[in-house]
Every structure is written in C-alpha cells, then in structure tokens.
Specification:
180 residues, disordered C terminus, 31% strand, 4 helices, alpha+beta
C-alpha cells in the first residue's frame, strides 16, 4: 500500500499524537462547547451495535414487531445514540491536550425522542461543575451535560458525564466549584 504524503510529512506524523482538547482551567461552569462533527445514524450501525452488545430485543431487529408497538420503523438503539453523541464530544471534552481525560461515569441519562435510520445528530456539551482533587494535585473533576439534537433541531438524548482532567498547573486554584 502506498500512502499519499502530499498533505502531510509521514516521518513527522507516524507515532506522534496530536494534542487536542482542553485542560481543567478551560472548563468554566456554564461554558458551552458545540462539537463540530455530525453523524448520520444508519440501519447497519444499529444492527452491528445490537449484535455486538447482545441487545436482542426484537424492537431493534424486526420491523413488523416495531410497528406493532407504534414505531414507524426499527428505532436506533438509544445506547448507540448516546455513544455517538458522547463520541462527538471526546475531542473537546476528554483529550486534554494529550494528558487524557479519565472517564469517571455517566449520570442522568434522558432518552427524549426516538431516533431512526437516516437521522443525523449533532451534539453540544455544557459545563455543569468542576472541582480540584485535593488528594491528587494537578487534577480536577469536570462534569458536563451532553445534548444531542437531530436534523430537525429536536433534542433526542442528554446525559451528564464526569472526567478526571489534568490541570495546566498543579497549583491551580479555582474560585468556583466545590473542593474535594
């Protein structure tokens, strides 16, 4: 296989990470990040996700069964929608300029509207809170709410996610948020 290196220097690129994202100090409560990727949800995505995660509810495999329950088509599994929306947020919220954002958990998942094959979702995240880890100098916890909307501007899912995030400076002090 021959790589086209017209647009990049192969020797400078291979084996090097590209540092994106933000550090603890950048996550001011109330700040909103509009994630730049959108994603069209496909029936094939849904089938692969459901098979790989053993989601064998006929709602996600059988169009006649789905219609008997009042759906117009086989819906996209909401956990797949959540994963896609969360994945769109990673570059902004979790990469931490190459220092990584250690996943701590997801809370308050709300499935608001059913998604179907062909829907395109985009997502944004709002910082809810942040606090420094006094037992781990140089690190803080950031919690944000990610919201995904479809091509009609309808919110389809939202959830809160927390990460352990590196500080730019280990002596960082914040004026807002709780200390732990």
């Amino acid at each position: 296989m021959i790589l086209n290196t017209k647009y990049f220097d192969l020797e400078e690129t291979v084996g090097k990470s590209i540092s994106n994202g933000y550090l603890f100090e950048d996550f001011e409560p109330g700040r909103v990040f509009r994630h730049h990727w959108g994603r069209t949800l496909l029936a094939s995505d849904n089938m692969i996700f459901c098979s790989d995660t053993m989601q064998y509810n006929p709602l996600y495999f059988n169009v006649e069964y789905a219609r008997s329950l009042g759906y117009r088509d086989i819906p996209i599994h909401p956990l797949f929608v959540m994963n896609v929306a969360g994945g769109m947020s990673v570059e902004d919220m979790s990469e931490g300029q190459g220092k990584g954002g250690i996943f701590l958990g997801v809370d308050n998942v709300r499935i608001i509207k059913t998604s179907y094959p062909g829907d395109t979702i985009t997502s944004s995240s709002e910082i809810l809170e942040r606090y420094l880890k006094t037992d781990q100098p140089g690190w803080g916890v950031v919690t944000w709410r990610t919201r995904a909307v479809n091509q009609r501007g309808e919110t389809v899912i939202e959830f809160d996610k927390s990460n352990l995030v590196a500080c730019e400076d280990a002596s960082t002090e914040v004026k807002t948020g709780v200390q732990s």
